[in-house]
Amino acid sequence: MGLFESLKRTAKSLLTNAQQEDVENEAPSSAPGPELRLNISVNLPDCVQLSGTTTSCKDSVLRLAQRHGIDHDGFLEIAGKIQREPDNPYDDKAIALYIEGERIGYLPSMYRNYVVLPEGTVRSVPVQLFTAMLPKGLRGEAWIWIGDGRSEWEWSRERRPRVFPEKRLLHDTERIRV
Q1: Would you give the DSSP letter of residue 128?
Q2: How much is the pTM?
Q3: What is d(CA 31, CA 35) in angstroms, rounded to the nearest whole number?
């Protein structure tokens, strides 16, 4: 059973017996008669952390960080472009972020159906990129703003996100040694 059928069954179970009979006897949707409608609203944050910055796109993140001199505890606020990747072998609805020709990461899959971005189009978006040097090498994390209007970032150069657990552990260990 698909999602729509499951939701329709749940909605029917909430109706009174008389209402259920009306729905079961309902005429085709083109004819007048009782109609069952289901409205679903999804509220997703406008500030989105990208996936793939530490895995499939980590080399691109490193090159971008080196070009901008943020390859050690850095911060970069820059414009990027999102576009669909219909030829992506893992997800034909994937939405990738590019900065200066480098694929930096992907919108999480839950966004792919809610971002208005027809195939073949590109949309400019503000981006924040944070980097940290860890024992295993450079780690980058990126956020984009997909909301309407001016971006309202939660993070800044001075107020960095807590996404680098190994870095926090390294700082805590250094503090203890002193």
Answers
A1: E
A2: 0.69
A3: 10
* Residues in the chain, total: 178
- 48 contacts 146 by C-beta, under 8 angstroms: yes
> 65: burial class by Cβ within 10 Å (0-12, 13-18, 19+)?
buried
pLDDT in tens, 123-176: 999 999 999 988 888 899 999 999 888 999 999 999 988 766 554 444 444 444
Neighbours of 49 (CB within 10 A): 17
Max Cα-Cα span within the chain: 79
Contact 139, 54 (CB under 8 A): yes
pLDDT digits (tens, 9 = 90+) for 57-67: 999 999 999 99
Q: Two tokens at 12?
A: 């029917």
HSE-up (13 A, CA, CB side) for residue 161: 18
